[in-house]
Amino acid sequence: MLALIALLLFSFSQSATSSPTRCGSFALRGSAVNAIVTNTTFYRANDTVAITNPFSSIDVNNLPAFCRVELSITTNTTANSTAHADVWLPESWNGRFLGFGNGGFGGGVNVADLGFVAVTEGFAGMSTDTGHLSEAVDGSWAGPHNDNAIVDWSWRALHLSVVAGKEVVRQYYGKPHHKAYYLGCSTGGRQGLKEAQRFPDDFDGIVVGSPANWMAHLQPWSIHVSLEIMPVNSSRFIPAATWAEVIHPEVLKQCDILDGLADGILNDPRKCSSRPETLACRPGQNTSTCLNLDQIHAIHQIFSTYFETNQTFIFNGYYPGGEVGYPQGLVGAVPFPIPQDYYRFFVINDTTWTMDLLNDTIIRLGDSIDPGTMDVIDPDLTAFIGPSRKGKILQYVGWADELISVGNSIHFYETVHAFMQANTHLNIDDSYRLFTVPGMTHCLGGFGANAFGGSGQAAADMPSSSFDAQHDILSAMIEWVEKDVAPEILTAIYWNNNNVSQGVGFTRPLCKYPQMLVFTGGEPSRATSFRCM
Ligand SMILES: *[C@@H]1O[C@H](CO)[C@@H](O)[C@H](O)[C@H]1NC(C)=O
Ligand SMILES: *[C@@H]1O[C@H](CO)[C@@H](O)[C@H](O)[C@H]1NC(C)=O
Ligand SMILES: *[C@@H]1O[C@H](CO)[C@@H](O)[C@H](O)[C@H]1NC(C)=O
Ligand SMILES: *[C@@H]1O[C@H](CO)[C@@H](O)[C@H](O)[C@H]1NC(C)=O
Ligand SMILES: *[C@@H]1O[C@H](CO)[C@@H](O)[C@H](O)[C@H]1NC(C)=O
Ligand SMILES: *[C@@H]1O[C@H](CO)[C@@H](O)[C@H](O)[C@H]1NC(C)=O
Ligand SMILES: *[C@@H]1O[C@H](CO)[C@@H](O)[C@H](O)[C@H]1NC(C)=O
Ligand SMILES: *[C@@H]1O[C@H](CO)[C@@H](O)[C@H](O)[C@H]1NC(C)=O
Ligand SMILES: *[C@@H]1O[C@H](CO)[C@@H](O)[C@H](O)[C@H]1NC(C)=O
Ligand SMILES: *[C@@H]1O[C@H](CO)[C@@H](O)[C@H](O)[C@H]1NC(C)=O
Fold it and tell me: Which first-to-last residue range defines the signal peptide (predicted)?
């Protein structure tokens, strides 16, 4: 009875208090979570929201009104380690909780997605800094032996932030959220899959892009790819201009028409077995218009599945069609820094180790240590998608991914599929679907229809064309969870020059794996001219 009166009084005081006041005086009551509010800020509609940290930034003046609550969360009492999280609470709330992921080894609240996705669409949004501050490509914070920071980045900070964030939502609005969703790409994809397996109650629907879920294999593969063309002054190095102006046009010449339309986009690169031999230099030919034999060998290695010496599978290779973007990934003149940091600061604990020292023993060491239990390779998703929970997972990946082979997403999907079929009576298609995106680079961008509401897309001026379930993958997830309408096909948009301000380029369907996009005739700029088969 007393509790009821208190609740009524509380609800009354809430509606009687203005939002800026309620925000300004907000503090967490009770001891349900090991977190304290460190700051609150109320932003009126169209106020300037300018926030920067080493991982993410936002600077806009067109958001609806919201309350920003900053939290400090104790992640290990003994070590007195903490993580920070932001909860952004829109004045006009849709009743849902939305958690976001991070990227690379980055530490910092994902303020970009909090603003461009959560507040813009009316979700109560939450993001953690993962327990440290750093840029995405910097792993030096991890060590050697900074064990609590490694565990926090791997999974602990996110889970504790979800629990604390939900409590903030409940106390701020005076009622709990009704469904909880997640959106993340790359490391954010890994974090989402980890949540599904380790904390299946945290979310009802998890949307993951190109997950870095198998770090112990992704990192040696990245090094392997770099070493195929390194050093820059060797005969095997391939300049970016050669990738873009020599190799890519030849791949298109050999394969572009296989999907029915010669438009510069390979809709199913698995069908393309292009041969770089056709580009071998003739005696006396200008060498920037052709390939020498070492470069041809390197290309074969880079586009092949990578096995270690004893034929153990490590990782899939690059797929044809993304050559223009690959030098911005792993085959540029400067090696991608994350793999070396992974071994230096998480696995070997030797800050002088260099990537040319990679060997099979080191690969196995990464496998056996699995620092912070960061990897997500267990194919058993029963806890999340089983009958007692009925969680949903939507995964997406670009065929032109320059940092994590698209083959990794397919490999994980197929591994889960096979395991669940062999060990349960569940139909994987009822709860886990993968959508492939022709011509999209890592998480966003590239040259295909690549905007559909994925993590980071709106913040990069590539928003979905509308927030309905056909055009926006998060809305598609909501329909699946709340109305049991499963997404069969999505429609993505290419904004001219990947910038919404330059207008519509074209629209295309995104197909559910293993279906592939085929041109069926008509106006190539319209999604209706294509089918998934
Ligand atoms: C709280 O946030 C406001 C607005 O960003 C800022 O001006 C102020 O310095 C912050 N206070 C603390 C204690 O961090
Ligand atoms: C915010 O800006 C938009 C677009 O300029 C405008 O339509 C809206 O009225 C503004 N809202 C407020 C509360 O100022
Ligand atoms: C917490 O930190 C202490 C001190 O670093 C460590 O011994 C302990 O294993 C940590 N506990 C967990 C659960 O990580
Ligand atoms: C824990 O760290 C905070 C600062 O992060 C400090 O204020 C506090 O005194 C520390 N507590 C203990 C028990 O060391
Ligand atoms: C390197 O440090 C991490 C974190 O303390 C530890 O898990 C790992 O076992 C260490 N590696 C070796 C080879 O000792
Ligand atoms: C490449 O450059 C390194 C120094 O940067 C030099 O030691 C090496 O001899 C050069 N290799 C070739 C093939 O020119
Ligand atoms: C070789 O080709 C490149 C690229 O087409 C061009 O820039 C360069 O001038 C050519 N070199 C010679 C010696 O013709
Ligand atoms: C592999 O690399 C490690 C670290 O650089 C080194 O200690 C070890 O001897 C190497 N093993 C082999 C078989 O080369
Ligand atoms: C590869 O297999 C051979 C023969 O079984 C074994 O002697 C060797 O240790 C293996 N290499 C590695 C890196 O495990
Ligand atoms: C998109 O275009 C606008 C207007 O030209 C420009 O201000 C903005 O920086 C562009 N966005 C990106 C990500 O380049």
Answer: 1-18
